[in-house]
Amino acid sequence: xxxxxxxxxxxxxxxxxxxxxxxxxxxxxxxxxxxxxxxxxxxxxxxxxxxxxxxxxxxxxxxxxxxxxxxxxxxx
Length: 76
Description:
26% of the residues lie in helices and 21% in strands.
């Protein structure tokens, strides 16, 4: 839980909206009209961080070191 908390604070400082969910799947609508689906029942997403800028394909990021992924996705 420590890294979840730390990453949440990091994202909040950069004014990046976060959403906590209990859903088993996430669907992201992309600017080109396609949809990217993440099946959260897959154990790889148990404590994962998925970054989405509203246009491009969502990216999985490391909770321990989110800075590089945040910069790549959001430019912040």
